[in-house]
Every structure is written in C-alpha cells, then in structure tokens.
Hints:
Blueprint: E1 2-9, H1 16-19, H2 30-36, H3 45-48, E2 54-57, H4 69-76, E3 81-84, H5 89-98, E4 102-104, E5 115-119, E6 124-127, E7 132-135, H6 141-149, H7 152-159
Parallel strand pairs: 1-2, 2-3, 3-4
Antiparallel strand pairs: 1-5, 5-6, 6-7
Function: Catalyzes the isomerization between 2-isopropylmalate and 3-isopropylmalate, via the formation of 2-isopropylmaleate.
Pathway: Amino-acid biosynthesis; L-leucine biosynthesis; L-leucine from 3-methyl-2-oxobutanoate: step 2/4
Keywords: Amino-acid biosynthesis, Branched-chain amino acid biosynthesis, Leucine biosynthesis, Lyase
Amino acid sequence: xxxxxxxxxxxxxxxTDRIIPGKYTKTLNLQDLADHVLEDLDPEFRSRVKQxxxxxxxxxxxxxxSREQAPLALKKAGISAVVAQSFARIFFRNAINIxxxxxxxxxxxINMNDEVEADLKNGKVINLSKNEVYEGTQIxxxxxxxLNEGGLVPYLKEHKTYS
Length: 163
C-alpha cells in the first residue's frame, strides 16, 4: 500500500482532545467531526487540508483518551495517512480499525507542505520534496490487508473470520 500526499506537520504529544475537542464527540455525524478536526491546535487546518494529505506528528501522537472519533475525524477530513515518530497504542489500533493508515518513522526531516510517499508494506517514507528515504516500522501483513479493505469491520465481513 503506497500513499502519496502533502504534509501537515505537528509536534509531540498531540492528544485526542487536540485532534477533535471533546465537546464535538457526542455526534454520530462524521462531517461534523471533520469540520472541527484540529481546530484548537491549528485553526487554519480546515481551510488548508486537501483530500489525500498526510499528517506528520512527533512522538506519542494520539495520546489521551481512547476515543475512536480522533482517527475518524482525520479520515473524514481527507487525511490519507498519519506518519509519526511514535503513536499512542490505542490511537494506532483505532486508526487501523477504521482504515486510516499509520506508519512510525523515528527519524525524518519532513516539513510542512512537503510531498511524501508512505509505503506501509515496506515500512518506508520517501520525502519527494527532498529526495530522502526514511526507514519506518513495517506493519504486519494482516494490518495492511485490514487497511486495504477499509478497516476491521469490512475486512471481517469480506473474510468471514468472525463467529
């Protein structure tokens, strides 16, 4: 799975309340979530984001609560993947479950608006703007399959691996 897009870069410890403020998590309307994604962290994000863009975070991206709305809001807003130095485990799992690709890359020099290509299967991110390749953590094949199906529920329906 290869994903290509322009970047929006943020720092360390971006928690789920910064991704989608708690006051908006009581809705089931995904567009409402997308309309408010990152509004406290980056008020201009919604006017800049384009379909297929990629979020780049520092360490501990997605820390805080276990709310699934955080990766859902990013995905609905058009984000095609999240690259970070490390992820909170629950955010990582929620992202895979809802079909939002994530990849850990410990060392990189990705800047805002760089064009990058994330190769999840091989655990690499290529900064096309700088012609640099960053080694990341290769995710297990089953997770790539889950992402290819659009998330855990579609994967389970397609493969009928549930009872």
